[in-house]
Specification:
Layout lengths: L12 H26 L4 H10 L5 E2 H7 L4 H13 L3 E5 L7 E5 L1 H23 L4 H20 L4
Antiparallel strand pairs: 1-3, 2-3
Helix pairs in contact: 1-5
Length: 155
């Protein structure tokens, strides 16, 4: 006899969205990651370069907050990008304890090349599935859900 759970996966509206959400994330990674690797970067390196692109740079703290790279991984990613000559670490003028990260001219040239190429590569997957209005709605809903997880549940 099958064991009964408190929540029936086929009937609970939250459970109905959970699996497709996770499957979509993995499907996205299956398409995105190989393309990023073909551009000569890891996903974490791409994330840092894409985040720094078109900015004057940011502190390590800001960078860790705006990328999907974990704090424990960020230093190693920055080390490898610096070794490649793609980023520069500059002491902050306001706070000498803080380091400012910015793209070098070589890093900016790479950003201009790889970011546009990756957007062009991924865009058709979105366009074949969603209208512009649906993209806006999906973005709004995903941000609402993310914010709910970040706020936590009140006891």
């Amino acid at each position: 006899m099958a064991k009964k759970t408190a929540i029936e996966p086929g009937t609970d509206p939250f459970m109905k969205v959970l699996r497709p959400l996770v499957e979509t994330y993995f499907a996205f990674l299956d398409k995105s990651a190989p393309h990023i690797r073909s551009l000569g970067l890891t996903c974490s390196q791409f994330d840092v370069i894409a985040t720094l692109g078109d900015t004057e740079g940011m502190t390590c703290k800001e960078l860790s907050e705006q990328t999907l790279v974990t704090k424990g991984t960020l230093t190693g990613v920055l080390d490898r990008l610096a070794t490649k000559g793609l980023i520069a670490r500059v002491p902050s003028r306001e706070d000498r304890r803080s380091i400012f990260i910015r793209l070098t001219p070589k890093g900016d040239a790479l950003f201009q090349k790889v970011f546009a190429a990756h957007i062009r590569y991924m865009q058709p997957y979105f366009e074949q599935a969603l209208t512009a209005a649906e993209v806006n709605t999906l973005r709004k809903l995903l941000l609402q859900l993310k914010n709910s997880f970040e706020r936590g549940v009140s006891p």
